[in-house]
Amino acid sequence: MTDPHTPGGVDHDTRPPGAGARVDFGPGALVAAVAVLVLLLAAVLPWTGLGASGWEVVLGRPGVTGLPRLFGSLAVVFGVVGTAVALLTGRWPAVFVTAAGCAVTSVTGLWAVWSQNTSAGDGPGAGLFLALLAMIVLAARWAGYAFSRS
User: Fold this and answer.
1) pTM value?
2) How far is 85 from 6, CA to CA, in rounded Å?
3) Cβ partners under 8 Å of residue 86, min gap 6
4) What is the pLDDT of residues 82-120, one digit of tens each?
């Protein structure tokens, strides 16, 4: 492409190929947005047999073990904040970090459910299962975007 403002009339793009490229989310962005809403809904439901909601688990309610607390914190960081940043910026680095973070959070969520099943008490609550499902959907959605880069 010619540019009258550069010597020789040729426009030289000095960026490496793919740098600054944006992701086209298409209608799949709606799936991610709904999964975030489900995750936020799960935060008000009980996560433990003690009746602690997701927000109480994240904020450190006494008597809650470490794995549900870690899962809740990672779900907020990668599931809510990471998804929002990736959707708003549309940049590849944000998509890759969010995909990796949601995958790690999903595994941590499985461990959190396991820890509630094996500890004394009534087991995991419905909110913990719903949050885990939302994180698995987010991990799959973001992995699809991350691996679609050509």
Assistant:
1) 0.82
2) 36
3) 23, 94, 95, 97, 98, 142
4) 999 999 999 999 999 999 999 999 999 999 999 888 876
